[in-house]
């Protein structure tokens, strides 16, 4: 029978994504077996990350500076903005090494049934960027699943009046697949063969 404190620890791990009850138990016992200093460092690192990592004021990606490295990089083309669901997708696009534009992080995608409505997404700052900056093209780099498509359609409607080029990453990423797990060659191809919408 787990003690109350152990049960609470298991519960906390169980709340993490992808951690089932069995793994939560394993992690809890692992932590209990660690030297106290290691546990302190882990707790400290979690808190420090939460305190120091904020959102970039322009693109909305995580950053320790007011502007993230990509937004601050004047060598990158600010005229092209690739719209992604979250920062993990940026890592995937960056791995290709071929994309030289900038990004905008939506922080999710539309899923009204689970409460993810347009007002919860980082959309207004995107419209402000387009109005303010010299943007020529918006690339919709969303995952090719149902919610991703719904989000893309919604954005296309909003962006059309700006009269700029709007494209969608095309083939390559399998339907229902995930940009995060696609290999660099596939992402490069999807970017190169993007289609106008
Ligand atoms: Zn940024």
Overview of this protein structure:
This protein is α/β, with parallel strands linked by helices and 197 residues long. It is built from 8 helices and 7 strands; from the N terminus they run H-H-H-E-E-H-E-H-E-H-E-H-E-H-E. It has 2 domains: 4-52, Orthogonal Bundle (Helicase, Ruva Protein, domain 3); 55-196, Dna Topoisomerase Vi A Subunit, Chain: A, domain 2. The chain is 44% helix and 14% strand. The strands form 2 sheets. It has a 5-stranded mixed β-sheet. The longest helix is centred in the first third of the chain and has 17 residues, at 36-52.
Radius of gyration: 20 Å
Oligomer: single chain
The CATH class of the largest domain is Alpha Beta
Order of helices and strands: HHHEEHEHEHEHEHE
How many domain regions? Answer: 2
Which shape, going by the Cα principal axes?
A: elongated
The set of bound ligands, ions and cofactors reads: zinc ion
Strand content: 5-15%
Number of DSSP-assigned strands: 7
Physical arrangement of strands within the biggest beta sheet: 4-3-5-6-7
Instruction: Specify the number of helices.
Output: 8
CATH topology of the largest domain: Dna Topoisomerase Vi A Subunit, Chain: A, domain 2
What is the level-2 CATH architecture name of the largest domain?
Answer: 3-Layer(aba) Sandwich
